[in-house]
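Hello,

Our lab assistant flagged a job as stuck in the queue for most of the afternoon. It eventually completed. Since we weren't sure the result was trustworthy after the delay, we are filing this so someone can double-check. Below is the sequence as submitted and the structure that was eventually returned. Let us know if re-running is recommended.
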Amino acid sequence: MSGTLSMGGMYKRQMNEPIINYVMVDDIDKAIAMVEKLGGKIAVPKKEIKSVGQIVIIQDTEGNAIGLFKPMM
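-- returned structure --
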């Protein structure tokens, strides 16, 4: 893990939309492999955001959604 995310935005939540917290990772593929090894699931597949980086949303073994973010450097 490294640094802090210095971008973002705020918007009005829609209905019962969950809040997703993102964690910055150094190697998103390694993090995904660890999630699956430990019993978590991929809720939203990895995708690239042009000029920003890569994100994936995982679900832990208790059903919580967590975003993983690998910044483009």
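-- support follow-up --
The delay was a queue issue, not a problem with the job. The result is valid. The first strand starts at residue 21 and ends at 24. The chain has a mean pLDDT of 87.
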